[in-house]
Write a structure and sequence with these properties.
Number of helices: 2
Distance between the termini: 32 Å
Order of helices and strands: EEEHH
Structural class: alpha+beta
Oligomer: single chain
Number of strands: 3
Largest sheet: 3 strands, antiparallel
Length: 90
Amino acid sequence: MHWHGDTFALPEGAVRLAGNAAYENQAFRVGDRAYGLQFHVEVTASLVAHWGPHLPPGIFLRESDVAHVSRAGEGIVRRLVGLAGDAPVG
């Protein structure tokens, strides 16, 4: 989930993990344990309620979308933590 216009080039040696038509680099990995995300996986209903007054004009978040994004984000975080925990140290 994002509404900004920021973008970036991947760092040297990075592997693209996710992208979309608007932003080619949404998630990447460097090495075994470093991940970069250009979207919010931590979205919850309470966080969205806090963000509401700060969103740009014309941007709104439907409750059903927030629930979907929240479930997807929880899955992504679980996978990232699992991958990081499985990676060799050093």
